[in-house]
Amino acid sequence: MSVLLTLLLLLQSAWGHPQQKPENANSLSSLWQVAWSNLGKSQSNGGTVTTPATTPVNGEPSGGETDKPPKDPQPDAPKVKGVYVTAYSAGGERMATLLDLLDKTALNAMVIDIKDDLGYITYKTDNPELQKLGTPMRFIKDIGALMDTLKKHEVYPIARIVVFKDSVLAKKHPELSFVTANGSVWQNGKKDSFVNPYRKEVWDYNIAVAKEAAKLGFKEIQFDYVRFPEGFEKKADSLKFTKSDESRTDVVSGFVEYAKEQLEPLGVRVSVDIFGYAASVPAADGIGQDFGKISSHVDVISPMIYPSHYSTGWFKQTDPDKAPYATIKGAMVDTHKKLDPLADAKPVIRPWIQDFTASWLGSGHYIKYGATEVQAQIKALHESGVDEYLLWNATNRYTSGVQY
Questions:
Q1: Residue 129's Cα: distance from chain center in Å?
Q2: Cβ 113 vs Cβ 396: under 8 Å
Q3: Are 120 and 139 in contact (CB under 8 A)?
Q4: Which domains occur in the chain, in start order?
Q5: Cα distances (Å, whole numbers) of residue 356 to 1, 110, 271, 322, 391
Q6: CA dist list (Å): 305 to 29, 149, 201, 387
Q7: What is the pLDDT of residues 107-136, one digit of tens each?
Q8: Sign of the CA dihedral 188, 231, 64, 6?
Q9: CA–CA distance, 12 with 22 (Å, rounded to integer)
Q10: How confident is the model at residue 277 (pLDDT cuts 50, 70, 90)?
Q11: Rounded (10°) CA dihedral 198, 204, 210, 212
Q12: What is the pLDDT of residue 69?
């Protein structure tokens, strides 16, 4: 893969998670800087220490490969074929439609927002530990009733927790975020704020959310946005935040390792969402994501391999979005190459695939996604030895007529 093509993909990945339009079509110059920086291998952390650094995980650098095969905390789990479900859908009328879809097809799992993209806990909780830093909202009106319904319909429940993108917590506690020279909390182009992965308080808060989700009956915890903001290495010197001597990749993989240790006694699986391109390029040090390091500490890894998020030339395709089979096949080749060195410690590979139409790519560069396109992605996964997958559609409107 050429450096040029790698840069193009990183540009597109900088649009956000996972189904997003570019922030500003005129910001090409700054996005090139993001891409180039993410491709590089610099370990420079940047930033200004404003308080004594918090050293996560007993002061020891983390990451790397495990010494022994992990024990699956859910050995009887099915081969997961799931859909993404917002808290609004889970607590609203759309849930009946989604349950009907799972009842009538081979789909068997739901990934439900328990801490969403803004940072809200999506149900009311009396847990004082969560109320201290968290902001519960009653998007899911009765979490207990929801869990009973999922059990009745034999749905494998996965709790999605958005970790370091947390505008609510950043506004509530600026000292846990990144502060600009004028004293305001930093925001990206979409007005989102992140909290600081160097702060162990942030680790423990998110793990507390996960622990409660496990006690509610979720079988798996899926952590998303386990990273620094895009292009962080270009912003760090102008921001005030707590940091230590650890690299960003070690801090991020350290959180994952710590979370796995904390949740293991509860018998839940731990999974992490990660940019699909991370399997195809060197470690993205700017945002702190190293595919191998993160994967060595989880039960399940979920690369977001949407064809729409790959740029011209990837996997020999002029328009990857128009070639769902070839794009997924190529992404899986790279994923296996990246994870095979983990040997018996290799996690379950369960990619996010595309069930939406990427019209923002422009005329001639995208196709309307329906049953044929979803089926093509699943076929590519099966032929690559991957039997699990998750369907993403931000509106939770999934294609009918697919043979799962």
A1: 24
A2: no
A3: yes
A4: 3-8+77-392 (3.20.20.80)
A5: 27, 17, 23, 13, 9
A6: 25, 31, 32, 15
A7: 999 999 999 999 999 999 999 999 999 999
A8: positive
A9: 8
A10: confident
A11: -160
A12: 63
Structure tokens at 110: 């739901």
- d(CA 385, CA 183) in angstroms, rounded, equals 51
Alpha carbons 70 and 301: distance in angstroms, whole number: 14
Dist. CA 64–CA 356, nearest whole Å: 35
Contact criterion met (CB below 8 Å) for 324 and 373:
yes
281 pLDDT band, cuts 50/70/90, is confident
Determine which of 88-92, 231-235, 249-253 has the lowest per-residue pLDDT on average.
Answer: 231-235
Say how many C-beta atoms besides its own lie within 10 A of residue 133's C-beta.
22
Supply the pTM of this predicted model: 0.85
Handedness of CA 156, 162, 168, 174 (dihedral sign): positive
Query: Which residues are 301's β-sheet partners?
Result: 272, 349
Beta strands in 116-210 (DSSP E): 121-123, 136-140, 156-162
DSSP 239-306: SB----SS-HHHHHHHHHHHHHHHHGGGT-EEEEEEEGGGGTSS-BTTTTB-HHHHHTT-SEEEEE--
CA dist., res. 301 & res. 278, Å (int): 12
pLDDT of 299 above 60: yes
Q: Quick one: pLDDT at residue 46? A: 36
Q: How far apart are CA 369 and CA 382, in angstroms?
A: 19
Cα 332 from Cα 349, distance rounded (Å)? 9
For 14-69, write each residue's pLDDT tens digit.
Answer: 444 444 443 333 333 333 333 433 333 333 333 333 333 344 433 343 444 445 56
Of the chain, the percentage scoring pLDDT greater than 70 comes to 83
User: What is the C-alpha R_g of the chain?
Assistant: 20
Better pLDDT: 230 or 11: 230
